[in-house]
Amino acid sequence: MTTTASPPPLTGGSPRRRGRGAERGFSRGFRWISTGSGIVLLVVLAAVAIFLVQQAMPALTAGSDELVAQNVLPQGMTSLWQLIVPLVFGTLVAALLALVIATPIAVGIALYISHYAPRRVSAAVGYLVDLLAAIPSVVYGLWGGMTLAPVIRVVWSWIAQALSVLPFWDVRATATGRSVATASVVLAVMILPIITAVSREVFKQTPRLHEEAALALGATEWEVIKTAVLPFGRSGVISAAMLGLGRALGETMAVLMILSPGILVSFQIFDAGQQQTIAAFIASQFPEAAGLRVNVLIATGLALFVITMLVNMAARWIVSRRKDFSGAN
What we know:
MetI-like fold, 11 helices, globular, phosphate transmembrane transporter activity
């Protein structure tokens, strides 16, 4: 008499099948965590925007008589826009000057680290550049106001004298060096690590085959950089520059400690008492503000928020137009 073996008891499936089920569960959980993180970001951004609009509305809807009667505007001003426009102008001038100064230097440092320097030197220079990002802005402000300003005022005086031949620009330079040009130099040093770090990583992602193909065609080392590395990293450099611009737009303490402020729409970038940035103005006025004056300050903060949003939107548009050269391709 033959007996048939009974089938093995079910123990929940094979180990491979159980492993795949665990992986699916982990993937599903990670997807929900990632989605939740994105939603949190949108919620925080919306909350900030709602707060700014809600708190700025009393100042935006207040009449000139009310603003003057409560003495919430600087002397001689009767409208909120007379305050916001010069502050926006000063903020953009300081940030754009810093960007113009920092971007070429940062790209040069990034190229040196990624393609020219020996490995040990590259690591040391990269460490020193990253160390600049760890210095507090207060220290930058002290250095800029006490050390840089007295020295660089000679340079500004020389440039002002050279530009004085222009018939349409009566250039003046302050004797203290506390001008928006000096603040822009300090801002350039502060945003230098951001632009350098991002550009360096983008340049390192250049396909090796592109560089070898250029060398095989007889290109020099500079021609390889010009024809292979820079076109590949163009969108990354633009993104890095926009990150640095966002840092420069919102910087407070360094500008507050260096700049001798004035609320004017003036192109006298070497003279004192001409411009002021939004962030520095809020920091200097907020401790003693109350009532409608707080709403006025928040209204200027809303203007800075809008500028930052527009800058980021412009950066995304520029990068999308250069997507053929992005590191993802």
